[in-house]
Design brief:
The protein is of the alpha/beta class and about 375 residues long. It has nine helices and 14 strands. The strands form three sheets. The chain has an eight-stranded mixed sheet with strand order 1-2-4-3-7-12-8-9, sandwiched between helices. The protein has a four-stranded mixed sheet with strand order 10-11-13-14, with helices on one face. Strand 5 and strand 6 form a beta hairpin. The protein is globular and about 50 Å long. The termini are close together.
């Protein structure tokens, strides 16, 4: 597909307008916990809160949890340490990251809640996980953005705002945080990753229910990129279909597949984002010779509705939305460790509600139509 710059720009502008209209449309319709009103930031976790909670968890775990910083690789743009918590003794290495976007705060709470469970619970499922896997939590990937309550971070030398989830590319790593976390990832070589996010407001296709939880793969299944990488086209779909089956009966959770939605036309665009962190993980990015073996692994992401900078979260819904993230995380980790995810038909992914596919929203060639290849 060789679009002119004018055509690409026109398409992207049109889609952005359509996305905005879809968010307004969805916000005016019912479904799930209320998210009315401006979010009180003081009720969410600050960087200092997270550091203290991690220390408390480590102390109360009696040796089960190890908390450390990535300072040996560097610090954030504003000089903050990036923290990791490690728990478990097994050979399967699971990477869980939250708040790469600083205004997506409930993800951090969900990650910390799951860490607390692994630190304190002695139930059979928890012991199974900790015996067969080691989990690495990065509960606040973007501490500067979290403190500013902005999606991205600020490059201190230029004042530029940077989306850290578009920075893992051969021409990227403009943010200090990106290189810090990439160096650690390349050294650790995880086996699987889960990335936690928030999204705008939309509706589950064919219903009047507001989506509370979306299941996503950053390189679209059966799209232009993912089928070329090992078995990730199948296993990522198996993982999220497994989560769907475990979560669809939970209270007011309204689940769909993550898409950019044109509500007026009732169509959706799957994302195919190569500069995203979990995309680069699946593609085995070798930046500056730090991953010469092109280590890679499957990765998926969760999206919870609303974010703090736009005031689309409300106190009545925060606990509920945090819990849905927690439960989905817990179920996917268990399904991965036990191998139950591999018993799921990959095509069950298609049973998760989604808008009719109109194309792929990319960060490398605008909108790519269905069936295009060679990118």
């Amino acid at each position: 597909m060789n679009l002119s710059i004018f055509k690409k720009t026109s398409l992207l502008t049109a889609i952005l307008l359509l996305v905005f209209s879809s968010l307004v449309f969805a916000a005016s319709n019912p479904g799930g916990p209320s998210t009315n009103g401006q979010t009180n930031i003081s009720s969410t976790l600050s960087y200092a809160d997270v550091v203290k909670i991690l220390g408390d968890i480590e102390h109360s775990s009696k040796g089960k949890v190890e908390v450390f910083t990535l300072d040996k690789y560097g610090k954030s743009e504003a000089g903050r340490s990036i923290y990791v918590a490690k728990v478990g003794d097994g050979s399967k290495k699971i990477w869980i990251q939250a708040q790469i976007h600083g205004n997506e705060k409930l993800t951090t709470e969900a990650a910390l809640d799951l860490l607390k469970t692994y630190a304190s619970s002695n139930n059979r499922e928890v012991q199974k996980v900790l015996g067969e896997a080691t989990l690495y939590f990065i509960p606040m990937y973007n501490p500067d953005g979290a403190e500013m309550n902005t999606r991205g971070t600020k490059i201190m030398s230029t004042g530029q705002l940077l989306d850290l989830n578009r920075d893992w590319t051969l021409d990227g790593f403009a943010g200090k945080e990106s290189l810090v976390v990439y160096k650690y990832w390349a050294e650790l070589k995880p086996d699987f990753a889960i990335d936690l996010h928030h999204q705008g407001l939309k509706q589950v296709y064919g219903t009047n229910e507001a989506t509370s939880f979306s299941l996503g793969i950053s390189l679209a299944p059966d799209g232009p990129t993912l089928p070329s990488y090992k078995n990730y086209n199948d296993v990522t779909r198996q993982m999220l279909a497994y989560v769907y089956d475990n979560m669809k009966g939970y209270g007011y959770t309204h689940i769909d597949r993550y898409q950019i939605v044109d509500a007026a036309k009732q169509i959706g665009y799957d994302i195919d984002i190569k500069g995203g962190v979990v995309s680069a993980m699946m593609m085995g990015l070798n930046y500056n010779g730090l991953n010469p073996e092109h280590h890679s692994h499957p990765a998926v992401f969760f999206e919870t509705k609303g974010n703090t900078s736009e005031g689309s979260l409300g106190q009545k819904s925060n606990g509920y939305l945090t819990k849905q993230n927690y439960l989905a995380l817990k179920s996917l980790v268990y399904g991965y460790v036990t191998g139950e995810i591999y018993e799921v038909d990959p095509n069950h992914w298609n049973d998760i509600p989604a808008y009719p596919l109109a194309g792929y929203w990319t960060d490398y060639n605008g909108i790519v139509p269905v069936g295009a290849s060679g990118y």
